[in-house]
Amino acid sequence: MPAGGPSPFRELFGVAPATRAEAPGRVNLMGEHTDYNGGFVVPTAIPLRTAVELAPRRDRQVRVASDGADAGAPRGYVLGAEAPTASWIDYVQGCTHVLGVAGPAVSGFDARITSDVPIGRGLASSAALTVALLRALRAAFDLALDDVALTLAAHRAEYDFVGARVGVMDQMAASLADERHALFLDARSLAYERFALPPGATLLVLDSGVAHAHASGDYNTRRSECEAAAARLGVAQLRDVTDPGALAPLPPPLDRRARHVVTENARVLAAAAALRAGDVAALGRLMVASHASQRDDFAVSTPDVDLLVALACAEPGVHGARLTGGGFGGAVIALAEPGRARAAAGRVVAGCRRRTGRGGAVLVA
Ligand code: GAF
Predict the structure, then answer these.
(1) pLDDT tens-digit series, residues 123-148
(2) What is the pLDDT of residues 83-119, one digit of tens each?
(3) Using a 6 Å cutoff on CB, does residue 172 contact ligand 1?
C-alpha cells in the first residue's frame, strides 16, 4: 500500500478501524496432551502473531475479512444467529456466541484479521485469533473481562462452539505468555509462574508441512481415550495418577495413552526445574524423551515429524527436539546452542526435503 493511501480496512468497510489488538502463537516446551487431563504445561510465545482491526457498527451485523485460508470478500452473520459452518469464521462466531450468552454485550462490527501464524501446524493459530479478537472486542465495547476471563471465553468459543475439545493451554499462552519467558501452568487450577528462558539456548521451530484440524477426529479421540482410562482407574483426571505402575489394569491402547500423560506430567515438573536452574542439557534430554512418548505411547506423531526430530537430534549443538502442539502433523521445536542454531535448522530442513520430497521449513530461529 502506498504511504498515505487508503488502508485495507477502509477499502473493505469504508471506515477507519476504531481499535487494533494482537495475540501471539505459541510453542509448548513440555507437556503435550496433559492440559485436558488436569496436568501441567510450559508454553512460550513465538514472534508470529495474529492481529484484529475492528470498528463497531450500529446494527447487529458482523462482517469479517481474513488474509488467511479463504481470503477475499468479508464473510458475515447476524449476532445471536451464530451457526457453525466448519470454516475459520466459526472462531469469530464462537467468540460472539460466548459473549452473547452472558447478555447483549456487543453490537455488530466490521473486522479484519491478519496473521503470520500458520494454520494447523501446532502453533495455536486458533487461540491467537480468538484472543486477539476478544481483546479487540474488549477495547471497542469496554467489556469488563480480565485476562483470565478473556482466556476462558476464548477457550469456550473453541470447545463449545467449534467443537474441538481442546484444553486451556493455548488460550492461556496467547493471553499471558511472552517470548522471553516460559509460562509454567497448572491447567487444573490455572495457577501459573513465569520462568526466564535460558540465555544459553536458542529455540528453533521447524514446520513439517503437514497440517491437522483438531475439530475433526483424532485429537478428540485421544481425549476420549484419556477420559476412559481415568474412569477405569477411578480417578477424576489422569493428573491424579503419578505412579506409572498404577496403570497396569488398563487394556491397550488405554495403558499406553495414560502412560504418556503420567510420564509427561513428570517431565513438565522436571523441565520446570531445569528451566529454573538454566540447565539446557537436561531440558534437551527431557524433550527427546517426550518425543518418544508422544510417538510410541500417545501415537500423535507422523513419519515426517519423526524425521525432523531425528535429523535435529543428530546435529552437533542441538540439545534435544520434540513434536510441539496437538500432533498429527505440525511443527517440531529444537533447543540449540545459539551459535549453531541457524545452520543446524537449515541442514535439518534441507535433509527432510531431500528424503521426503515435501514439507519442511524453518519458522522461527
Ligand atoms: C492443542 C490443544 F489446543 C491444547 O489444548 C493441547 O491439548 C495441545 O493440543 C496438546 O498438548 O494445541
Answers:
(1) 999 999 999 999 999 999 999 999 99
(2) 999 999 999 999 999 999 777 779 999 999 999 999 9
(3) no
Q: How many other CB atoms are found less than 10 A from the CB of residue 76?
A: 12
CB 74 within 8 A of CB 61: no
Catalytic residue status for 304: no
Identify the DSSP state of 251: P
Residues linked to residue 56 through DSSP beta bridges, in sequence order: 109
Q: Is 166 in the pocket of ligand 1 (CB under 6 A)?
A: yes
Average pLDDT estimate for 151-177? 97
5 by Cβ neighbours in 10 Å (0-12 / 13-18 / 19+) ranks as exposed
For residue 340, what are the β-bridge partners?
A: none
Is the distance from CB of 268 to CB of 31 less than 8 angstroms? yes
What's the predicted TM-score (pTM) here?
Answer: 0.95
Q: Round to whole Å and give the CA distance between 360 and 348.
A: 8
What DSSP letter does each residue of 197-230 carry, written as one string?
PPTT-EEEEEE-S----TTSSHHHHHHHHHHHHH
Say which of 90, 170, 279, 297 is annotated catalytic.
Answer: 170
CA-based nearest residue to 300, from 277, 272, 270, 327: 327
Q: Which three cell numbers stand for residue 193?
A: 509462574
Closest ligand 1 atom, residue 33 Cα: 11
In terms of Cα–Cα distance, which of 122, 145, 123 is closest to 133?
145
The model's confidence at residue 214, banded by pLDDT at 50, 70 and 90, is low
Q: Which of 277, 276, 346, 334 is nearest to 305 (CA)?
A: 334
First to last CA, the chain: 29
